[in-house]
C-alpha cells in the first residue's frame, strides 16, 4: 500500500515542499510503472493523495514525457464518455543485459515492463569479460537505428550470476569464470550510458515483486534455478535485502549435504550442486532445454532413472526450503527457472516443506508459487536497475 509522502529534512538548497513533491512524483510514476494504466481516482485511492494533487502530479509527469493519457474503462456517468487513464510512456526505455555461461541476451524494455526488442547471442563457452562487452556492444548497435528513431534510453541494467558489489564490479562468478571484473564500468564506457549491475537472483526477486506473483507482498523469498546455478533473492518488509557490499542472497551455496557433490565454489554438497538440471539432462537425453521444453519433458517422463533423480532433487530442495522459511519467515516463496519446473511436477511435496515442517507453521500461511514472469523475468528484471534513478526522482529525468 502506498502511503502519502511525509516531510523529511530537506537537503541543503531544497525546501520541504520540494522534497514532498519529489516523493509524490516518484510514488505516482512507480505505481504506474508496476501496475500499468490507472485512472486519477485509482491513483488517489492508492497513494492517499487528494484529487487536485494527483492532477498536478500527472500534468508534471506528462510534461516530462514520462506518462500519457489513454482511453480508460470507467465512465463519468451512466451514459458519459469513458474517463482517461494514465499510463507510463513506454518509449522511455532501458537496456536489459543478461550474462550466462552460454549466452548473452540484450533487450530494450520500456517503462511498464514492455519488452520492445531482444537479441540473444549463444556462445560455445562462457565469454571472457572483454568478449562479453563486445557482444553487448554489437547487439546494441544492431538495435541502434530503431532506438534513435523511437526511444529515450535512460541507461542499462546488467544481471550476472555471481557476487556483484555496489559499484557494479563482479567479485566472483564461478559459472562465468570471472573474478574482480569491473564489468559495469567497462560496459558503460563502450555504450556511453550509465550501467548498473546486480546479482541475477536478486534482480529476479525485484522483478517478481513489481510485476509478478510478488506484487503487494512485503516479505518474499525468491529462489531461481538457472542452467548451472541457483540463486536467491529476499524482499524483507518491502525492501530488497542487499547485505554487506550487496552480497546477500547466495542461497545456492547453502550446504545441504557435507558429503555431497563438489560445487564450483570448492565446497561439497551446496544446494546448486545437488539440485541441478545438469544432473537431469543426460537422463532425459536432451541438452539446453528451455523452461517450457523442460515442463513438457518432465510431464511425460516415465523413465525410472528420471523419476528417481527428480524425487531425490525434490527431497533435497524441500529440506533447503524448510531451512530458508525458518530463517526468513516469508509470506510467499517463489521458485523460478529449473526450480519452477520441479514445482510443477512435485507441488504437493514442496508445499509440505514450506507449510508443514517449519517451526510455527500452524500459526501462519505461506504461499508457494512459481514465478509468473517466466521467460520475461530476466528481460524485465535488469531494466529495473536502470530505471531506479528515474523512478526515485522523475523531475531530474534528462535523456
UniProtKB/TrEMBL annotation:
Q: Name one Pfam family in it.
A: ROK
Q: Which Gene3D superfamilies match?
A: 3.30.420.40, Winged helix-like DNA-binding domain superfamily/Winged helix DNA-binding domain
- Record-stated family: Belongs to the ROK (NagC/XylR) family.
Official protein name in the record: Transcriptional regulator
Per the UniProt record, the source organism is: Microbacterium testaceum
Amino acid at each position: 500500500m502506498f502511503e502519502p509522502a511525509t516531510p523529511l529534512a530537506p537537503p541543503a538548497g531544497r525546501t520541504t515542499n520540494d522534497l514532498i513533491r519529489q516523493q509524490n512524483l516518484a510514488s505516482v510514476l512507480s505505481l504506474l510503472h508496476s501496475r500499468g494504466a490507472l485512472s486519477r481516482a485509482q491513483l488517489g485511492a492508492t497513494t492517499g493523495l487528494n484529487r487536485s494533487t494527483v492532477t498536478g502530479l500527472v500534468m508534471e509527469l506528462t510534461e516530462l514525457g514520462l506518462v500519457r493519457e489513454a482511453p480508460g474503462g470507467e465512465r463519468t456517468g451512466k451514459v458519459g464518455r469513458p474517463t482517461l487513464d494514465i499510463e507510463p510512456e513506454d518509449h522511455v526505455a532501458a537496456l536489459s543485459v543478461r550474462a550466462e555461461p552460454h549466452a548473452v541476451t540484450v533487450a530494450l524494455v520500456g517503462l511498464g515492463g514492455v519488452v520492445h526488442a531482444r537479441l540473444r547471442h549463444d556462445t560455445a563457452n562462457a565469454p571472457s569479460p572483454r568478449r562479453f562487452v563486445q557482444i553487448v556492444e554489437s547487439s546494441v548497435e544492431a538495435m541502434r537505428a530503431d532506438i534513435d528513431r523511437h526511444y529515450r534510453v535512460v541507461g542499462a541494467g546488467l544481471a550476472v550470476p555471481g557476487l556483484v558489489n555496489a559499484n557494479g564490479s563482479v567479485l566472483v562468478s564461478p559459472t562465468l569464470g570471472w573474478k574482480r571484473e569491473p564489468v559495469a564500468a567497462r560496459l558503460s564506457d563502450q555504450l556511453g550510458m550509465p550501467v548498473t549491475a546486480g546479482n541475477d537472483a536478486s534482480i529476479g526477486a525485484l522483478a517478481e515483486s513489481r510485476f509478478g506473483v510478488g506484487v503487494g507482498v512485503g516479505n518474499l523469498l525468491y529462489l531461481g534455478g538457472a542452467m548451472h546455478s541457483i540463486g536467491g533473492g529476499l524482499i524483507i518488509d518491502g525492501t530488497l535485502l542487499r547485505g554487506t557490499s550487496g552480497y546477500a542472497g547466495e542461497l545456492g551455496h547453502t550446504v545441504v549435504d557435507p558429503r555431497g557433490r563438489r560445487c564450483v565454489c570448492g565446497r561439497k554438497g551446496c544446494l546448486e550442486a545437488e539440485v541441478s538440471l545438469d544432473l537431469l539432462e543426460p537422463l532425459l537425453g536432451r541438452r539446453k532445454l528451455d523452461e517450457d521444453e523442460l515442463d513438457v519433458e518432465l510431464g511425460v517422463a516415465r523413465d525410472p532413472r528420471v523419476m528417481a533423480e527428480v524425487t531425490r532433487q525434490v527431497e533435497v530442495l524441500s529440506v533447503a526450503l524448510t531451512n530458508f522459511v525458518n530463517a526468513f519467515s516469508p509470506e510467499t516463496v517463489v521458485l523460478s527457472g529449473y526450480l519452477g519446473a520441479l514445482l510443477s511436477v512435485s507441488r504437493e511435496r514442496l508445499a509440505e516443506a514450506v507449510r508443514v515442517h517449519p517451526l510455527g507453521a500452524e500459526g501462519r500461511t505461506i504461499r508457494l508459487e512459481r514465478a509468473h514472469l517466466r521467460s520475461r523475468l530476466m528481460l524485465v528484471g535488469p531494466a529495473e536497475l536502470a530505471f531506479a534513478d528515474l523512478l526515485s526522482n522523475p523531475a531530474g529525468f534528462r535523456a
